[in-house]
Design brief:
Strand content: under 5%
Largest sheet: 3 strands, antiparallel
Shape: globular
Distance between the termini: 38 Å
Strand order of the largest sheet: 1-2-3
Helix content: 55-70%
Structural class: mainly alpha
Number of strands: 3
Number of helices: 18
Order of helices and strands: HHEEEHHHHHHHHHHHHHHHH
Length: about 450
């Protein structure tokens, strides 16, 4: 493919900008809700769902007021789901995926059938790994995941049938295969771009999704029970987040055109790749590395506070004026996912000898909301979101940053699958909002 001359692009850039710049005041005058957001920041109601419910505020006499965060999967609070499987020392992602797909928690025999189906489908088709992953390594694992999902269309004898039975088959297969695709995609990148040895471990029967991923990702295939338990928790907490988040809404939009399952799920992956959506925990990790390098005493509240103020003022780190991992589009007083993850993160930090780092993060979590209001002169109520601790957890699990967002996709494919099925069953009309043309006639 021939390159386009940089000089030509520089000449064309002003034209592209000039003829695509819409005056900001027109959006207000014509009552266009950019980002499908209401003036108070809440989302425009564009659909109904029974799959997930995200609660972060209440309305009192028309005023939006902060509230403790709640997250429900099919009517069950995620806190109760986690408490249930953790108290019985079980892995939770598989039954969570079943709940999202079928609307109810599985009985023991149904869960066994479902986990057997996942085990039967974790391996990739013959020659898939060599031809589709190793021969064309990608510098970005999310792009490799999207490509792998799209290529799976060619390995399906019945790819375009959108009957519920067939879509369920395809979705279960993708839930099973995405961890393998992600692990092998990373191994290919590690070998091709970092010069490391190549390790391709076949998935094992009898292991959970989180255990299999750690087994395939690590050269020696070893992991502790706590490591597998914490990765499982991360996957449960990332499996679903309502229909309004960017990638799940993308699934609804693309599914409404009656396209195939592989195209729909790949579109969700492409949406999730965006740094405004799925890559936030990487920003948190980089911010924390900057704080640790510039704050001498991590336990000194004044020293930590002074540096956070500099970050919020846009004077240091990436100059964006943001404390990454603090604040959320819906949650205000708390993010239930962050609360659950923090507890287990503290436990793992003891096992890994990283309690000092955990204590620093806990201190930042307690101080940042107040400093945000003070520096920004805002009454907005913010709290730590799930990304604040997830990157730290992945670091402790020795998972490379290349895989942070792919792990998100490995989990969220369960929710995406449920939303695809819901759109097929209950949607019925292609999603087709309006754009008003303001070009001169």
């Amino acid at each position: 493919m021939s390159a386009i001359k940089q000089s030509h692009l520089k000449q064309l850039k002003p034209l592209a900008e000039q003829h695509n710049k819409i005056p900001a005041e027109l959006y207000d005058r014509l009552n266009v809700l950019r980002g499908l957001r209401n003036p108070d920041g809440s989302g425009v109601l564009v659909g109904l769902t029974e799959i997930g419910d995200v609660h972060g505020y209440v309305f009192d006499e028309g005023e939006r007021l902060p509230d403790e965060g709640r997250l429900k999967y099919r009517g069950y609070r995620v806190n109760d789901l986690v408490k249930g499987f953790q108290s019985e020392k079980r892995f939770g992602f598989e039954e969570t995926a079943f709940l999202l797909l079928f609307g109810e928690l599985p009985k023991q025999d149904m869960l066994k059938t479902f986990t057997n189906a996942l085990e039967d489908n974790r391996e990739l088709p013959k020659n898939f790994t060599e031809d589709m992953i190793l021969k064309i390594p990608s510098p970005d694992i999310m792009n490799k995941l999207a490509r792998s999902v799209l290529v799976s269309y060619s390995y399906d004898d019945n790819p375009d049938d959108i009957s519920i039975e067939n879509v369920l088959r395809q979705c279960i297969q993708l839930i099973a295969k995405l961890p393998t695709m992600a692990a092998y995609g990373y191994q290919a990148k590690s070998y091709a771009f970092y010069g490391n040895s190549l390790f391709i471990h076949q998935p094992k029967r009898g292991l959970s999704t989180s255990e299999n991923f750690l087994h395939m990702m690590r050269p020696d295939s070893s992991y502790t029970p706590l490591e597998a338990e914490l990765l499982d928790l991360c996957m449960v907490l990332h499996a679903e987040h309502g229909g309004g988040n960017n990638s799940s809404f993308t699934i609804h939009v693309v599914t409404s055109s009656d396209t195939d399952t592989y195209s729909a799920i790949a579109s969700g992956i492409c949406s999730l790749k965006g740094p405004k959506h799925g890559g936030a925990n990487i920003k948190v990790v980089r911010m924390m590395e900057d704080i640790k390098a510039n704050v001498k005493d991590w336990s000194n509240e004044k020293e930590v506070s002074d540096y956070l103020v500099k970050i919020l003022q846009g004077r240091t780190f990436d100059k964006a004026g943001l404390v990454y991992g603090i604040g959320h589009a819906v949650y205000t007083k708390s993010d239930p996912r962050a609360v659950l993850l923090k507890e287990k993160a503290q436990e793992l930090s003891r096992e890994k000898g990283r309690e000092e780092e955990f204590n620093l993060m806990s201190l930042i979590e307690s101080m940042a909301p107040g400093l945000f209001q003070e520096v920004k002169q805002s009454d907005k109520v913010v709290s730590a979101n799930v990304d604040f601790y997830s990157g730290f957890v992945y670091q402790m699990l020795d998972i490379p940053a290349d895989l942070y967002t792919p792990i998100f996709a490995m989990a969220r494919v369960a929710g995406w699958s449920a939303h695809r099925i819901e759109e097929i069953v209950s949607g019925g009309r292609i999603i087709r909002p309006a754009y008003r043309c303001i070009a001169p006639s």
